[in-house]
Structure formats: structure tokens, C-alpha cells
Sequence to fold (474 residues):
Amino acid sequence: MRRLKYFLCGRFFPFALAALLLLATGLILIFWLPRLLAPIAALERVLALISAVAVCCDDSPAEFKLPRAVLIVLLPWVGAIACLFFLVGEKEITKETNGNAQQRFPLSVLSENLSALPACAAKTADYFPVGREMYLSLLADLKRAKKFICLEFYIAAEGLFLSDILDILEEKAKSGVDCRLLLDGFGCALTLPSDFQKEAEKRNISVRFFRPLKFPTRSSERRDHRKIAVIDGQIAYTGGVNLADEYIGEKIRFGHWKDTAVRVTGGAAALFCDLFVRTWDSLGPDRPLPRFRHAGGNIPCAVIADSADETSCRAGRSALLKLFAGAERRLYVTTPYLAPDTALMRTLETAALAGVDVRLMIPHIPDKKLPFLLSRSYAAELERSGVKVMEYTDGFLHAKSVVSDDVAFVSSYNLDFRSLYLQSECGIAVKQKAFADRVAADFLSVWEGGTSLPARGKASEIFGRVLRLTAPIF
Fold:
């Protein structure tokens, strides 16, 4: 009896109990699992059916539904639960943004070939073929600010670029300039310290993060991918450049970082100011910024923008379709990520078959391996239809630009599903031959140093086709 008492109170008893429970569980499974297989399988089929119906009823584009359906088929239980999780996340985002949807700009005619783009005018439009030039110009404009500075970027990272920006904002704030910095919660999750917002506000710089990561929403997809800088509502910058040192050549990643940006003044700048204000106000009340009339300038242009709470009727996708379909002589496209939907693919192929000089440039050095392989798969298909394709070899190609005859479009839009359907994006299309010629000349100078697509074997072709099922994910 004493030995039993010592055993029950000793340190070996928990291990013995655990072993006994494990043995009992094994015996139960041996005798009962065969009887449970049929009910478990039936329950999984019911869950899969519910998930499939929910996916079909969702208002997402068809290209988004196919990968989810494949997920349900290939991954029992896990696939169905993941699809339901995605849909719940979408509903949460809809509730979050309900009542804050951004008003679209009025539609009017920009040109005969590019109708129904949101037209405005700019006093000046300057093109920057590299991020360094944009950086120097932006710093000079920030130092001259009199009323307010509004910055909206997907990524901000510690380094020279961000440090210079913050130093100028701190000095301008001391003189009464209203300084605001809007950053994406996902894009900056690993690039800024956790106390960044607190430290910036000590310097009288207002900082907000767009949708900080929060379970269980799909906040990793619905991001603010815009790049906007507005000074006093009179000057605006946009393009592909983020507030990080690789964009201005201070930090080397993958070699030379090729990017582009645009500086506009006049009515177009006021529209970019409106874009910033609408996103800023959607995150909570704050002191108002002055509004400006959309007047001034004689350079026809169109500010194109989408917000992350919209999936259908996207302005950027519509603008790209019009630019591709409207080209009669030349169509030059650069993008770091190529995963367009069927309509954009067919429009590019049709332009090439119609005799338009269609050229596409993508990276040769990847920053992300799977999106890179995906880009090559789509590019190879376009090349077979007559589109000329080259890869940028000097470093990483991050530029996002289109030249369609005498219209040039510089933006934050990648030619992939995230930019086309999910994220907040923006850009400007400028209808001026001199401006379009500058963008085209930059494109051709880069084109001359590029390399052709590598030969693809049957295995690579099959892998690329299978990988396309994941295109809406990447």
C-alpha cells in the first residue's frame, strides 16, 4: 500500500498516466476508426460543398474562383476551411470600409482612342527615369512647402531616404506646416521599428498605418500600394518609388534598381491630394486639409486610381485595356510582375497581331522566385503571339510604365492580380507627345541592354501552367 502511495505521489506517475492514456487512445482508434471513416468523409464532402457554393456566390472575378475550387479539391478539410476563411476576411473588410468607399472621378473623354478616362490637366509634367532623380527633386519641393505635406507610400524603411524625409518634415512642422505620413501596415511590417509612429509624432509628424495586420481578415492582400507625395496641393509625385534606399541607389539589391516616377503640377496635383485625403479620412477623423479646385494647366492627363475595398469595375484595369487596345504604332510596357487576366492578355496579343510594335520588359533577376517564374510563363505565351519580350539584366526592374502612341502611363500598378483587383493603386496617364517620347526613349535605352527570354522545355511549360492557378495569390 505504501509503495502504491509513493508511486501515485512520485514523479513517474504523470508519465505512466500519459502512457496509459496514449495506449487507450490507440485501442479506441483501432476499434472505432473504421466505423468513423464514412461519417468523417461525408462531413468533409458537406463542408466542401458549402465552400464551393460560397465561392460560386462570391462576386470575385472568375480568375479568383478557379484557384479556390482547386484548393477545395486538392486539400480535403484544409482547402474548404481556407476558402471559407478567405471569404470571411472579405466580409470583414467590406464592413470595415462600408461608408468610406472612395468616390470616383467624373468620366470624360481624354482622346479619341482613350475615351472614358478621368480627364484633367496639368501645368507641368516631369518624368524621372530613376529613383535618385525623383528623390532629389522631392526633397527640394518638401523644403519649399508652406501649408501641408502629404505622403502616402506602401513601404518606408530605415535609411537615408526616410531619414532625410523625416528631418525635413520635422523642420517644416516647427514652422507650422501640417505634415502627414500614411504607410501600409503590411508593407512596413518588417521595415520599421514598432515605436516608429510614436517617435514620429514626437516630431509633430502625423502618422497612420493602413490596415495593420489583424487576424482573421485577409489584410495581407487588401493593401495600400500607392506612392503619392503632395506638397501644398500644387505639386504631386507618383510612380513606383517607395521610401527605401534601394529605390535611390543608396542600397544595392539585385544590382541597379530601375524605377520611374512623375512630378505634376496644377489640376492633376489637386486630384492626387484628394486621393490622399479620402484614404486618410477613412482611417478616422482628423483636422481637415484645405481642398483645391481641379483647375490649371494645358497638358491633358488622367489620374487613375483604385481603392482596396473595390474588386470589380477597377479603373486601373479599364485604363490599361484602353491603352493596349488604342495603340496604333507603338506599345511599350514595363512591369516587375506579370500575371494579367485573360482580357489583358488577349488585348496585347491582338495589338501585336494587328502590326503594332508591342514590346514588353520584365526582370531577369528575381526578387521573388515564384512570381518571377509566373511572369516568364505569361511572357512566353505573349511572345508566341508576336509580342517582343526582353528581360532587364542590370539589376531589378521595378518600373511600371506604358507608352501607347503619344500617351504615357506611369503608375504603381503591376500587371498582376493584386494590383489589378485587390490593392489601392494610382498613376497618371499624360497625353503629350514630348512626354511620351521621353518615356519611350528611356524604355528603348533599357531595351537595348536587355536579354531574350530563355528557352523553355516541356517541363517548364507544364510547371508554368500549373503555377498560373496560384496567380491570384501572388
Notes: The first helix runs from residue 2 to 9. The radius of gyration is 26 Å. The first strand starts at residue 119 and ends at 122. Residues 98-117 have pLDDT under 50 and may be disordered.
